[in-house]
């Protein structure tokens, strides 16, 4: 009788261990590292809300500060951040940052890509090509390059065109902290699109006035990127950080 009981107990422990391992596999992401890449008319401070959400859930988050001087320089800055990661990493890009991660995503530590209202060119394509595939929204305020070749966002249109679902105070801060984006970057073609070989997730910001949603859909569908719609402005990662975090978490599992 004791032998039967011991055998039953051992079997029960085995079943419990397997069940626990299965639950842990479903709840604990395999990938804990996340690298965030900002866009052209912003800086890394915009990721603060998303950073807080992800770090509270146990993720190791690194924020790239793009120099915005060229595609090559932004890719280099992103690769430096990826070099420091201790294992597989989810690489996230917003807006122009999508073009950056399309090239930088070839880094061996990148396990998946997440595009947040982002550009997603293919080999030989540049960002401008896609921006010209649909008429800009009336609220769009991207100005022509100045005499130094730097493009800024029009202050009068920044709130409505870039950050319509944020407070005016938040939008004013973002305008004041935007980087000096060298417009030549928009004309630089991709040499090797990482989304061709790595899993990709794309967030369509349905109220976007800077990259209209139809452009986002067209890029993501062309690449078989898994699409998630979130109602929000171009800076949906600020206005809806929990929902954007959910997509990153999905990619990490």
From TrEMBL:
<keyword id="KW-0378">Hydrolase</keyword>
<dbReference type="InterPro" id="IPR052897">
    <property type="entry name" value="Sec-Metab_Biosynth_Hydrolase"/>
</dbReference>
<dbReference type="InterPro" id="IPR000073">
    <property type="entry name" value="AB_hydrolase_1"/>
</dbReference>
<keyword id="KW-0732">Signal</keyword>
<dbReference type="GO" id="GO:0016787">
    <property type="term" value="F:hydrolase activity"/>
</dbReference>
<feature type="domain" description="AB hydrolase-1">
    <location>
        <begin position="34"/>
        <end position="246"/>
    </location>
</feature>
<dbReference type="InterPro" id="IPR029058">
    <property type="entry name" value="AB_hydrolase_fold"/>
</dbReference>
<protein>
    <submittedName>
        <fullName>Alpha/beta hydrolase</fullName>
    </submittedName>
</protein>
<dbReference type="Pfam" id="PF12697">
    <property type="entry name" value="Abhydrolase_6"/>
</dbReference>
<feature type="signal peptide">
    <location>
        <begin position="1"/>
        <end position="21"/>
    </location>
</feature>
């Amino acid at each position: 009788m004791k032998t039967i009981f011991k055998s039953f107990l051992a079997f029960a422990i085995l079943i419990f261990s397997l069940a626990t391992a299965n639950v842990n596999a479903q709840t604990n992401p395999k990938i804990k590292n996340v690298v965030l890449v900002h866009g052209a008319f912003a800086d890394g401070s915009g990721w603060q809300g998303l950073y807080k959400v992800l770090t509270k859930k146990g993720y190791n988050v690194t924020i790239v500060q793009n120099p915005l001087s060229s595609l090559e320089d932004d890719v280099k800055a992103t690769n430096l951040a990826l070099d420091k990661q201790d294992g597989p990493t989810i690489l996230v890009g917003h807006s122009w940052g999508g073009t950056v991660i399309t090239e930088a995503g070839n880094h061996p530590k990148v396990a998946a890509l997440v595009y947040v209202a982002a550009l997603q060119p293919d080999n030989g394509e540049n960002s401008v090509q896609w921006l010209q595939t649909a008429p800009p929204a009336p609220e769009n305020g991207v100005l022509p390059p100045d005499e130094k070749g730097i493009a800024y966002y029009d202050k009068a249109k920044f709130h409505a065109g870039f950050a319509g679902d944020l407070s005016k105070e938040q939008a004013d801060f973002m305008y004041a902290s935007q980087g000096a984006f060298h417009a030549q970057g928009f004309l630089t073609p991709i040499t090797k699109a990482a989304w061709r070989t790595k899993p990709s997730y794309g967030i369509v910001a349905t109220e976007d006035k800077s990259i209209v949603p139809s452009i986002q859909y067209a890029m993501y569908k062309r690449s078989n990127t898994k699409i998630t719609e979130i109602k929000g402005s171009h800076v949906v990662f600020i206005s809806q950080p929990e929902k954007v975090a959910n997509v990153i978490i999905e990619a990490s599992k």
